[in-house]
Design brief:
The structure is a single chain. α5 packs across α7, α5 crosses α14 and α10 packs parallel to α11. β15, α13 and β16 form a beta-alpha-beta unit. The protein is of the alpha/beta class. Strands 3-2-1-4-5-8-9 form a 7-stranded parallel β-sheet, with helices on both faces. Strands 14-12-10-15-16-17 form a 6-stranded parallel β-sheet, sandwiched between helices. A two-stranded antiparallel ribbon has the order 6-7. 44% of the residues lie in helices and 15% in strands.
């Protein structure tokens, strides 16, 4: 700790994938705004993705810097284009990390849960370690209780609903919506390993969103947690929102001008995140469903499964659809990256068809926009239950099959289901109005949480204070 200024020095070590990297960068910026000296540990290529926002923070005199870890010669990291999945091995960073920590000792290092190897080296150097969790409190409570109590062999089939025991709310799941016991055990074992001996967990959430589950995590599961989000709200200016992640594939001004021409709450935004691979035949069902719904939309078409082998006729369907929608002024299609925060916050956007990734869920909540839920992998089916059953701010499209990012599902979600869900959310009704009122109220609570006097603001200050006490104790 810097005794002259009474500040703490925190290192942030994000994972490579955008779903974890972007919120941890925002978290580092939040702590810098609270006076902590924040250093982001980056690889040479991923530092480029957030250099601009850090430079803007430095111009605002925030104590934040980037330290680039030098990768040893003859070694390289795999896919680091913001779409790296959780199983990507980052252990080539072990030696450069060790050398840095031997030379410079921060008061604490915040490490992403997917850097499973990092815990041992940080502990060996006797540095306080905090784990950054990429999801909220609710999914963690659900998966822990399923693991403890549910015996899948007793279910008659994968489609049979079961009640998740021990939770404050009634949560029904099916076997097909839950990661296989092997995947689940691997994930929880990795989490357990990285959390062992850690000082606690930083969670990108806010107390008012899931109060009983934050309490459950602390009191029933015995976790030491700080809820510091929604960290995306640290992006106040257009530049921060526009350049968060990669460069958009359509100029944001053209996109916003198009939205300006639409009525309030009339446009549906569609995105399945940076990692998911969607087969062409599923994209076709989405396209036909959207067209039949007759609602204006912005659709971010991300990775296409087996795109190198897709036939010309399949390509033609999507290209023709895009051309037709443009001519009718009905829809915009992004092939790649979009300025999601700017789009969601626009008055014309009235719904978000989402894979229920935690960042997208939180960003949507902060914008006060209800959702069509289409979970695919990770903890997304649990997030869907939070959105539709607990918070009641979304409708389910009917996705029923958990799978890894790059595996084709056995069942398609047909165009009729897509059309039905879009109309249910986007055509005004008393039910939709009530949903909009609820989500706008949650959005107000999110903004209050990160302002001075709010719960997340208080948790950031509380953690900084604990680190100061911890360091003083060591110095005595």
């Amino acid at each position: 700790m810097n005794h002259e200024t009474d500040t703490v020095k925190i290192y942030f070590f994000p994972f490579l994938g955008g779903g974890h990297q972007i919120p941890m960068i925002d978290t580092a910026r939040v702590f810098a705004k609270h006076g902590a000296i924040s250093t982001i540990l980056a690889t040479p290529s991923n530092a480029v993705q957030f250099q601009n926002s850090i430079t803007r923070d430095q111009k605002s005199n925030l104590p934040i810097t980037i330290y680039t870890l030098t990768i040893p010669e003859n070694t390289k990291l795999p896919d680091i284009d913001m779409s790296a999945g959780p199983m990507v091995d980052t252990s080539v960073l072990l030696e450069p990390m060790k050398q840095l920590l031997l030379q410079q000792r921060p008061d604490c290092i915040v490490v992403d849960m997917f850097h499973g190897w990092a815990g041992d080296i940080i502990d060996e150097l006797k540095l306080p370690r905090i784990v950054f969790s990429g999801s909220g409190c609710f999914p963690r409570c659900v998966i822990e209780n399923i693991r403890k109590h549910v015996v899948f062999e007793k279910l008659s089939s994968d489609s049979e609903p079961f009640l998740v025991p021990g939770l404050p709310d009634r949560v029904l799941m099916t076997g097909s919506q839950v990661p296989s016991s092997r995947n689940q055990s691997e994930f929880l074992d990795r989490m357990k390993k990285i959390e062992e001996k850690s000082f606690g967990l930083i969670i990108n959430s806010f107390y008012n969103l899931e109060p009983v589950y934050a309490d459950y995590l602390r009191n029933e599961l015995g976790k030491k947690i700080w809820l510091v989000g929604p960290v995306s709200l640290c992006n106040r200016g257009v530049e921060d929102k526009k350049k968060r992640g990669k460069q958009p594939t359509i100029d944001e001004k053209s996109c916003l001008n198009w939205l300006n021409s639409k009525k309030p709450n009339s446009v549906l935004y569609i995105s399945f995140g940076s990692v998911a691979c969607i087969p062409m035949k599923q994209l076709k069902e989405i396209a036909y469903g959207l067209e039949a719904s007759d609602q204006p939309f912005i659709w971010v078409v991300g990775k296409i499964l087996n795109s190198s082998s897709k036939s010309d006729s399949e390509n033609w369907v999507l290209d023709e659809f895009e051309k037709r929608m443009k001519e009718m002024d009905k829809g915009l299609i992004f092939r790649g990256w979009a300025p999601q925060l700017l789009i969601l916050e626009h008055d014309a956007v009235g719904g978000f068809m989402t894979h229920c990734g935690w960042n997208s869920t939180l960003e949507c909540v902060c914008a006060g926009v209800p959702m069509i839920t289409w979970p695919l992998s990770a903890e997304q089916f649990f997030n869907e239950k939070l959105v539709t059953d607990v918070l009641r701010i979304g409708v389910q499209v009917g996705s029923r099959e958990w799978g890894s990012w790059d595996v084709e599902r056995k069942e398609l979600v047909g165009r009729e289901k897509v059309e039905f869900a879009v109309k249910k959310l986007m055509v005004e009704s008393e039910e939709v109005e009530e949903m909009r009122r609820r989500v706008k109220s949650i959005a107000e609570n999110a903004k209050r949480a990160v302002e001075e006097g709010g719960s997340s603001y208080g948790d950031v200050d509380a953690l900084i204070h604990e680190l100061k006490i911890l360091q003083i104790g060591k110095d005595v």
